[in-house]
Design brief:
The protein is an alpha/beta fold and 165 residues long. The chain is built from five helices and five strands, in the order E-H-E-H-H-E-H-E-E-H.
Length: 165
């Protein structure tokens, strides 16, 4: 069964890497937003952005956070993670720093975006529950193959984890 998922990522530096993952066809993802559409949304301020994110999450079973160099601690990525978790959706991270962008460059590995988000009433962080995978391989092609092979399993595991918590 192909799951309907929401992709969360830092747009400017990671859009081409995210497109590679989206185009794998392993999950049914949200429609990519164009630069012009995003500009229209952001002109409406925080409330408009929140409404847009909530609409994008509707009908999805999992949020896949594509983790680049500067993904962690971004305001709207944090919002997408928290909103997804609060809706009972699975949440999973996949590091994409090892995939080449359109210029052929790879980037540095970013921090786990779940490590600073609290869970429950204790000092527990979401990173103690939610998985954040670092694809194996010595080059972009091998890491791409790893993501393609394991993305569906990671989504299923994330949904099962969420059902337990």
């Amino acid at each position: 069964m192909t799951r309907r998922c929401f992709f969360s990522f830092h747009y400017d530096p990671d859009n081409s890497r995210a497109a590679q993952v989206r185009n794998m066809g392993m999950v049914n993802g949200n429609r990519p937003v164009s630069d012009n559409d995003w500009e229209d949304v952001t002109r409406g301020g925080d409330r408009a952005i929140q409404n847009w994110i909530r609409a994008q999450l509707h009908g999805r079973s999992c949020t896949i956070v594509l983790v680049g160099t500067n993904t962690a601690k971004r305001k709207w990525i944090d919002y997408e993670i928290i909103e997804s978790w609060n809706r009972g959706m699975g949440v999973v991270g996949i590091h994409i720093h090892g995939l080449r962008n359109l210029n052929g460059r790879i980037s540095r590995k970013g921090l786990n975006p779940f490590a600073h988000i609290g869970y429950g009433t204790s000092d527990t962080k979401l990173s103690s529950i939610v998985r954040c995978y670092n694809p194996q391989g010595t080059n972009s092609k091998a890491r791409y193959a790893w993501i393609k092979q394991y993305l569906g399993d990671a989504v299923e595991e994330a949904i099962q984890i969420r059902h337990k918590h």
